């Protein structure tokens, strides 16, 4: 039970870590699969799931991109890209 993730936000955080590790290691196929799954969760999930994906997962990935000076927005599926752009515009004000 030590590794059990308790909340949806912790799960989104862990999922972000997995996605970032895939990007760092150059495993673009895995990164795309992660992003596609996040897209599906964001599109079909309840409000709590959507908030976790938007506020934790996408924020984590976008912060990573900024820090590493990398541009992987072409990997983002449509809905995630829209959320990413919303976050960038909100923080740039």
3D architecture notes:
With 93 residues, the protein is mostly helical. 75% of the residues lie in helices and 0% in strands. The chain has helices at residues 8-24, 28-44, 47-68, 78-91. Helix 2 (28-44) runs antiparallel to helix 3 (47-68) and helix 3 (47-68) crosses helix 4.
For this entry, give a set of tags.
93 residues, mainly alpha, 75% helix, globular
Strand content: under 5%
Strand count, sense and barrel status of the largest sheet are: none
> Whole-Å distance between the termini?
43 Å
Q: Find the count of extended strands (DSSP E, 2+ residues).
A: 0
Oligomer: single chain
SSE class: mainly alpha
Uncertain residue segments: none
Reading the helices and strands in chain order gives: HHHH
Radius of gyration: 13 Å
The count of helical stretches stands at 4
Shape: globular
Mean pLDDT: 85
Residue share in helix = over 70%
Brief digest:
The protein contains 4 helices and no strands. The chain has 93 residues and is an all-alpha fold.
Q: Would you spell out the secondary-structure blueprint of this structure?
A:
Blueprint: H1 8-24, H2 28-44, H3 47-68, H4 78-91
């Amino acid at each position: 039970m030590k590794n059990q993730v308790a909340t949806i936000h912790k799960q989104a955080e862990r999922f972000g870590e997995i996605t970032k590790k895939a990007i760092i290691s150059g495993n673009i196929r895995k990164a795309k699969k992660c992003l596609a799954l996040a897209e599906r969760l964001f599109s079909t999930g309840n409000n709590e799931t959507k908030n976790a994906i938007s506020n934790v997962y996408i924020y984590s990935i976008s912060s990573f991109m900024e820090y590493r000076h990398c541009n992987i927005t072409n990997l983002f599926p449509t809905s995630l890209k829209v959320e990413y752009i919303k976050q960038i515009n909100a923080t740039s004000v």
